Amino acid sequence: MKLRSKFFLILMVFSLVPLASVAVISRRTMSRVEAAMSAEVHQNLIRIANGALTAAAQSSAAILGRSKLAVEFALTTLASEAEAVLADEPPARVKVYFAPDFEEPESAPPDFGPRPGYLKRTEDGRLVPDWVSFYQPVVFLAPGTSAFEVAEDIDRLSLLTDVFADISWKMTPSLRWLYVSLANGVHVSFPGHAGYPSGYDPRQRSWYLDATDEIRWNPPLVDATSGQLILTASKQVRHADGSLAGVAAIDLLLTDLQRVEALSSRWTAAMRSFVVTPSAAETEAPGLLIVAQKDDPTGAASWERAIEPQKLISDAPDRMAQL
């Protein structure tokens, strides 16, 4: 090999080795920089997502809080009006519609028909339109109740029709049913509807048995007439002498308490949203009881059985306890 070629090879080796070293070092440095930047961007995205989700939860909680106050105000008004009409002399006999009248359109009020937002669950779990009347409430008599013996109280409660309609109109679509149940077996519910099952006695429902003079929010249960999961606020109604007359209550559909659509539009349709409450059992692992969720987990559960709430748990109990 000529001397010129040897010098060329030696110079090339001395030139390429540093260049290769610089390239390797630069690549490793760039990889570390990219990893650091990626981690920082990842953490920033997590912080942004956490902040947005927290804000959404706080906003939903604020909306629920306002809805809660509105329902409690409406219930206080209904209970007060019920006490007022029960203290007065019964009015002249008026036309009322009993539960059997709503079984056929021919005997129901003129406006009886399907309405937006009113659905009922069939035995196979499907949701179909439910027919209601915003013209008249329905009068249901508990088993063993004589219509003749309670006729005056039925006439008195018929005076609540305008009160029912006014509350329902102002709070639609939040409310499902508004009703007053008396200890003598008279149950008046608005809007008027059919569907009361055989053997149904409102006085045996938890919202009646657990009612007090203060507004009480009851655990979720299956609505006896629509088969859907509801949340009930109830309050005792008293006679002028202070004795118990019955209970006034308002039902809300649990699925209507959530802003799932608003949240999904910002994130993904696969997003799941829950209304939860802390578990009262201190002996159990930290968790949250699910009060409401988008998809009703009860399916076609019987109205006669209590609902066992699902629990939101985590593999990280300390973080769940913080939550």
What's the number of helices?
A: 6
Which sequence of SSEs, written as H and E, runs from N to C? Answer: HEEEEHHEEEHEEEEHEEEH
How many strand units? 14
Strand composition percent:
15-25%
Any idea what the radius of gyration is?
32 Å
Shape estimate: elongated
Task: Please outline the major beta sheet.
Answer: 8 strands, mixed
Amino-to-carboxy terminus distance: 78 Å
Mean pLDDT: 86
Residue stretches low in confidence (pLDDT < 50, at least 5 long) are: none
Helix/sheet category: alpha+beta
**What share of residues is helical?**
25-40%
TL;DR of this structure?
The chain is α+β, with helices and mostly antiparallel strands and 323 residues long. The chain has helices spanning 3-87, 151-157, 161-171, 206-209, 260-266, 317-322; strands spanning 97-98, 113-121, 127-133, 138-141, 175-182, 186-190, 192-193, 216-217, 221-222, 229-238, 244-253, 274-278, 288-293, 311-312.
Structure description:
This protein has 323 residues and is α+β, with helices and mostly antiparallel strands. Helices cover 37% and strands 23% of the residues. Strands 1, 4, 5, 6, 8, 9, 10 and 11 form an 8-stranded mixed sheet that branches. Helix 1 (3-87) packs antiparallel against helix 3. It is elongated and about 130 Å long.
Which features characterize this protein?
single chain, eight-stranded mixed beta sheet, 323 residues, alpha+beta
